[in-house]
């Protein structure tokens, strides 16, 4: 029992060290929790809602190379948000949303302390357009308990444990990408997180395809940040473990 507990704490200490080293890194290489966050692997992004990890899915959208005079923020592909539903039936809503469910297995030890803080971000850009061209985008993180297979029910009923949204209003310059970002402290009972990127009709509620004339997302990333509380907890834990070892040595 003692060795298992010690091994678990040693794991936490090494996780804490990794987080400290990653702090301040722009793209947090090696700690990225989202899959295909730069949309460089072409996949079908159209469906109702995802029910498994690592699958971009949502409203009518596509992964594309540069177009409309817009060059991807990173790599050679980006996500185009096109309509506010995943089929052609209803356009009377105002957000084109694409989701990915985030697997927290690699950081579950930290999540279970109840102090883990996730950072979510995405870059957005759009055509210049005119006064009817929509400008608003957002990135959202939502924490859930239970199975990813139940995500659509949980989302529909608003049954998240915690949620945060970052909103950005984009400019008319196709050469610049605007960053939306958000941090969310995860309740200890969190099993998985949903990342949502969205374009929103804030200028004109178009009822016909395409509802968005040239709206894009790229570099949609999620990583764990070391909150001061979590860092203190981890440092205290590491100190206690080392002290315990020293005491045993001298005994
Ligand atoms: Ca990309
Ligand atoms: Ca821009
Ligand atoms: Ca609409």
What does this protein look like?
The chain is α+β, with helices and mostly antiparallel strands. It folds into 2 domains: 1-23 and 228-245; 29-225, Galactose-binding domain-like (Jelly Rolls, Sandwich). Helices cover 22% and strands 29% of the residues. The chain is built from 4 helices and 10 strands; from the N terminus they run H-E-E-E-E-H-E-E-H-E-E-E-E-H. The protein has helices spanning 2-22, 108-111, 151-156, 228-250, and strands at 57-58, 61-64, 78-81, 95-103, 117-126, 136-144, 162-169, 178-185, 192-200, 215-225. The strands form 2 sheets. It has a 5-stranded antiparallel β-sheet with strand order 1-4-9-6-7, with no helix packed on it. Helix 1 (2-22) packs across helix 4. The model is unreliable at 1-29 and 240-251 (pLDDT under 50). The site of one calcium ion (CA) has 10 residues, from loops. Residues 38-40, 72, 74-75, 77-78, 218 line the site of one calcium ion.
Write the layout of secondary structure elements.
Blueprint: H1 2-22, E1 57-58, E2 61-64, E3 78-81, E4 95-103, H2 108-111, E5 117-126, E6 136-144, H3 151-156, E7 162-169, E8 178-185, E9 192-200, E10 215-225, H4 228-250
Antiparallel strand pairs: 1-4, 2-3, 3-10, 4-9, 5-8, 5-10, 6-7, 6-9
Helix pairs in contact: 1-4
The protein binds calcium ion (CA) (3 copies).
The site of one calcium ion has 10 residues, from loops.
């Amino acid at each position: 029992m003692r060795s298992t507990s010690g091994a678990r704490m040693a794991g936490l200490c090494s996780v804490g060290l990794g987080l400290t080293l990653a702090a301040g890194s722009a793209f947090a290489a090696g700690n990225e929790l989202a899959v295909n966050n730069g949309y460089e692997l072409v996949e079908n992004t159209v469906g109702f809602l995802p029910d498994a990890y690592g699958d971009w899915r949502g409203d009518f959208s596509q992964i594309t190379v540069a177009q409309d005079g817009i060059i991807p923020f990173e790599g050679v592909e980006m996500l185009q948000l096109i309509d506010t539903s995943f089929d052609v039936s209803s356009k009377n809503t105002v957000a084109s949303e694409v989701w990915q469910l985030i697997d927290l297995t690699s950081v579950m030890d930290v999540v279970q302390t109840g102090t883990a803080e996730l950072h979510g971000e995405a870059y957005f850009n759009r055509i210049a357009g005119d006064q009817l061209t929509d400008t608003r985008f957002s990135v959202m993180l939502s924490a859930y308990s239970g199975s990813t297979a139940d995500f659509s029910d949980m989302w529909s009923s608003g049954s998240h444990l915690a949620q945060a949204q970052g909103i950005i209003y984009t400019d008319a310059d196709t050469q610049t990408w605007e960053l939306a970002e958000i941090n969310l402290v995860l309740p200890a009972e969190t099993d998985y997180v949903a990342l949502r990127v969205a374009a929103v009709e804030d200028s004109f509620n178009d009822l016909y395809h395409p509802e968005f004339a040239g709206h894009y997302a790229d570099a949609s990333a999620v990583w764990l940040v070391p909150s001061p509380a979590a860092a203190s907890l981890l440092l205290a834990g590491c100190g206690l473990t080392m002290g315990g070892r020293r005491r045993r040595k001298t005994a």
